[in-house]
């Protein structure tokens, strides 16, 4: 039996009603209900198990400071050492959104994560970008990742779990292409404060989506988009291609242009990013 299910049996559902001890939340519902787990296999798995057993309110946050078997896009693993990074999953019920428009929920998550980090990295030396589909980069190095999992019925989204992993307090990252808030700023940061800021940004942009402000959200996303209008190398099955990044389509695909002006639509697993072409 996985650890997430074991923990679920012992968590008092009354803890769902606790609010942050770090001040009054500037939200209507996101983060008002929280479940903190000292350690867990995966916050996303725990949140989805929670949805199968009880009826948590929209905006419920499941978070931990130690994740042992987290998942990312492309079947990657996201593991967090104890007490150094923030891993959180937020439950939303976007039944106002057509299933074909789920990529707008990814925009909400990506812009929220970007702007949360911008609160800490306000100096012009930090270039913070959203790398399609689910990474946040600072100065070309990964600082956060996002994984969204959904429950769909014909024509309807029952619920979505927005999973975040943010590198916070780590001076020496295990991978050369990764970074953290502490490494960038030279100071440690309270994980619960980062959580609070993320909740504020998430709700701000989720409410835009709920109000039907799709174009406003899309513009915000593209203004933070990594590699936009750059000519870059992309790899597919070990073969290199050169495309110009044009943004995303109405269906949420990455839009690439060949040197002959031909439009290529890429899915999440179609290409791996390479370097810019000078």
How does this model look, in words?
The chain has 278 residues and is α+β, with helices and mostly antiparallel strands. It has two domains: 220 residues, BirA Bifunctional Protein, domain 2, CATH 3.30.930.10; 46 residues, SH3 type barrels, CATH 2.30.30. The strands form three sheets. Strands 1-2-5-9-8-7-6 form a seven-stranded mixed β-sheet, with helices on both faces. A hairpin with a 5-residue loop joins β3 and β4. α1 crosses α2 and α3 crosses α6. 36% of the residues are buried. The N terminus is likely disordered.
Secondary-structure topology with pairs:
Elements: H1 3-10, E1 34-37, H2 43-53, E2 61-64, E3 70-71, E4 77-78, E5 86-92, H3 103-120, E6 128-131, E7 135-138, E8 141-153, E9 156-166, H4 181-185, H5 191-210, H6 214-222, E10 231-236, E11 239-248, E12 254-257, E13 263-266, E14 272-276
Parallel strand pairs: 1-2
Antiparallel strand pairs: 2-5, 3-4, 5-9, 6-7, 7-8, 8-9, 10-11, 10-14, 11-12, 12-13
- Please state the overall shape, judged from the principal axes of the Cα atoms: globular
Count every beta strand, where a strand is a DSSP E run of 2 or more residues. 14
Helix content: 25-40%
Distance between termini?
52 Å
Poorly predicted residue ranges: 1-24
Main sheet, how many strands, which sense, barrel? 7 strands, mixed
Percent in strands: 25-35%
């Amino acid at each position: 039996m996985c650890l997430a299910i074991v923990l679920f049996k012992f968590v008092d559902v009354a803890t769902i009603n606790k609010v942050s001890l770090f001040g009054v939340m500037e939200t209507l519902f996101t983060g008002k209900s929280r479940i903190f787990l000292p350690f867990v296999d995966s916050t996303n798995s725990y949140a989805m198990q929670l949805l199968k057993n009880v009826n948590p309110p929209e905006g419920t946050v499941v978070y931990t400071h130690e994740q042992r078997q987290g998942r990312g896009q492309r079947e990657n693993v996201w593991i967090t050492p104890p007490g150094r990074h923030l891993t959180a999953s937020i439950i939303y019920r976007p039944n106002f959104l057509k299933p074909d428009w789920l990529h707008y929920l990814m925009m909400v998550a990506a812009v929220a994560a970007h702007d949360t980090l911008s609160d800490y990295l306000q100096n012009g030396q930090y270039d913070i970008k959203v790398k399609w589909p689910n990474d946040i980069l600072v100065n070309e190095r990964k600082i956060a990742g996002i994984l969204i999992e959904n429950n769909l019925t014909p024509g309807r989204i029952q619920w979505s779990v927005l999973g975040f992993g943010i590198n916070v307090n780590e001076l020496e990252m295990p991978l050369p292409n990764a970074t953290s808030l502490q490494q960038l700023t030279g100071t440690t940061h309270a994980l619960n404060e980062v959580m609070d800021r993320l909740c504020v940004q998430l709700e701000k942009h989720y409410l835009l989506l709920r109000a039907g402000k799709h174009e406003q959200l899309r513009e915000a996303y593209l203004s933070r988009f990594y590699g936009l209008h750059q000519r870059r190398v992309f790899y597919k099955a070990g073969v290199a291609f050169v495309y110009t990044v044009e943004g995303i389509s109405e269906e949420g695909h990455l839009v690439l242009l060949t040197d002959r002006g031909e439009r290529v639509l890429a899915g999440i697993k179609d290409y791996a990013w390479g370097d810019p072409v000078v």
